[in-house]
């Protein structure tokens, strides 16, 4: 699993697995799921993450997600 947070554009992206993204679907405003060719969820992208996740900007809440594999 890999989590990345881009502070400049306020986007949190979490990927699991190494499959190529075949399709993406916005499941709610600013929340996008990525699917592989078999329809499995392989990632999630959260736009405006700091506004959607309470206490997101605290180091304790996000750890060091700037290219961290977890």
UniProtKB/TrEMBL annotation:
Record-linked PANTHER family: SSR1768 PROTEIN
Protein name according to UniProt: DUF2283 domain-containing protein
Source organism per UniProt: Crocosphaera watsonii WH 8501
